[in-house]
Amino acid sequence: MKVNSHIPNLKTKTHLIFDLDGTLIDSLNIWNVIDQAVLKGLNIVVPLDILQQEHTIFFKKENSYIHYAQFLIKNHHLEITPEEFLKMRWQIADSILTEQVDFKNGVVKILKKLKEQYVLILATSSTKHILSIYAHQNQKMAKRLCLETFFDMILTQEDIPFGKGKPEPDIYLTVLKKYSVKPEKCLIFEDSLEGVQAAYHSGIDVIHVNDPFIPFEDKKSIQKYTPYHLKKWSDFKI
Fold first, then answer.
1. Assign residue 102 a region: left if phi > 0, alpha if psi is -120 to 50, beta otherwise?
2. What is the DSSP pairing of strand 102-103 with strand 119-124?
3. For the residues 206-221, what does the mean pLDDT come to?
4. Do the beta carbons of residue 228 and residue 207 sit within 8 Å?
């Protein structure tokens, strides 16, 4: 395997850990598409770039979607509760996640090659329900790689109910514990600031995988936590 300047020496690694949304799949903007569809069903038209700007404000808060739903309801004078808005959101989400989400360019080929040499782990904040959609209902994705069966281990936030979500390192510390592996033998791939921070606090090397929907200020902050950056998966040479 060739050594690349934008990644640590993979010859020293045995376990590779991947975030999902924004890292392996193009899905960060999909929730803006879903919210746009919910609002359209309520006769409200909002451009995607505006929804992205608004959602970024609330993303870092605990229970961010409830706060965001409250904001949208107030801002657009909607006569529904946040719970009703979120129910509509999930009703619409399944079909959009099935039809519009796909892997990032080049990543499936790379994952299959890496599986020949490493233990591969998926550590995601997505739910098991969403993973099931990608693995079975989304035919574009399922035909190329089944997320539920491909990885040696999958961890979602549901698997650590008493742990804290990213940027806390709990999900990555759980990987270390389950495999009884040292941090220096692992490598994490993350796109978001919160994910990179979680990796950093776990003591594991992390590669920042670029995604266009990560806010510019977050990308600047990411520089503090890792020197390793991947602009696109085609730059990752095996």
1. beta
2. unpaired
3. 93
4. yes
